[in-house]
């Protein structure tokens, strides 16, 4: 019995060693392959990462390109037949942009330590954002006609933008988001006034 046990156990290290070597070899190969893929992927990511930020810095947003999507869409309307009011379309884009910026400014104001001093700014931010979004929606529609309401909306939007800009300018020296918001409101106010002049009474 001792001999049989000794022979069986004497064979185990050989079999175990063989299977261990095979397993370790396969594992090493898999790790090497994974490392190669990871290195290739990281180099590719670095390559793309080094190009994309540069493109963003070298190519600032072009306001004319921002209006192209709305212009192309509105020009396809069967009642428009390609005859677009480019001044009004630029106003639409400014309205939507201002709505987003005012919403962001209000949110940033809520995050400031001196939030109690920014209550009026937050209120005007949110009011302006709502008016801008509504104006953009009404001015976008081309089925039928409702020019009187569009004019009233543009007037209200210009007023909301002016009031919001004045309030944000009071805090622009301390808060960069208020400075950015004030500039956006001024652009939208001007765009609304120009759009009003482009609509026949």
Molecular structure report:
There is one protein chain. The protein is an all-alpha fold and 201 residues long. It folds into two domains: 1-60; 62-198, Substrate Binding Domain Of Dnak, Chain:A, Domain 2 (Up-down Bundle), CATH 1.20.1270. It contains six helices and no strands. It has helices at 2-58, 63-75, 86-111, 119-140, 147-171, 176-198. Helix 3 (86-111) runs antiparallel to helix 6 and helix 4 (119-140) packs antiparallel against helix 5. The radius of gyration is 32 Å and the shape is globular. The N and C termini lie far apart (114 Å). The model is unreliable at 1-18 and 42-64 (pLDDT under 50).
Number of strands: 0
Rg computed from alpha carbons, rounded to a whole number of angstroms: 32 Å
| Poorly predicted parts | 1-18, 42-64
Looking at the chains present, what oligomeric state does this protein adopt?
single chain
Order of helices and strands: HHHHHH
How many structural domains are formed by the residues? 2
The helix content, as a percent range, equals: over 70%
Number of helical runs?
Answer: 6
Identify the CATH class of the largest domain.
Answer: Mainly Alpha
- First CA to last CA: what distance? 114 Å
Query: Major β-sheet, in short?
Result: none
Average of per-residue pLDDT values = 76
In one word, what is the shape? Answer: globular
Question: How does CATH name the architecture of the largest domain?
Answer: Up-down Bundle
Strand proportion = under 5%
CATH topology of the largest domain: Substrate Binding Domain Of Dnak, Chain:A, Domain 2
Query: How does the helix and strand content classify structurally?
Result: mainly alpha
């Amino acid at each position: 019995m001792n001999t049989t046990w000794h022979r069986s156990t004497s064979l185990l290290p050989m079999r175990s060693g063989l299977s261990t070597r095979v397993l370790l070899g396969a594992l090493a190969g898999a790790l090497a392959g994974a490392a190669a893929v990871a290195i290739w992927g990281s180099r590719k990511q670095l390559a793309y990462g080094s190009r994309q930020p540069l493109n963003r810095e070298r190519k600032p947003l072009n306001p004319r390109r921002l209006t192209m999507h709305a212009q192309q869409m509105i020009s396809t309307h069967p009642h428009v037949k390609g005859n677009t009011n480019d001044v009004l379309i630029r106003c639409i884009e400014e309205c939507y942009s201002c709505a987003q910026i005012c919403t962001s400014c209000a949110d940033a104001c809520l995050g400031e330590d001196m939030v109690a001093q920014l209550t009026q700014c937050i209120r005007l931010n949110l009011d302006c954002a709502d008016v801008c979004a509504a104006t953009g929606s009404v001015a976008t529609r081309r089925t039928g006609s409702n020019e009187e309401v569009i004019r009233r909306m543009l007037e209200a939007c210009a007023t909301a933008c002016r009031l919001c800009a004045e309030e944000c300018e009071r805090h622009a020296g301390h808060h960069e988001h208020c400075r950015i918001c004030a500039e956006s409101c001024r652009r939208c106010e001007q765009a609304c006034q120009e759009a009003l002049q482009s609509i026949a009474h």
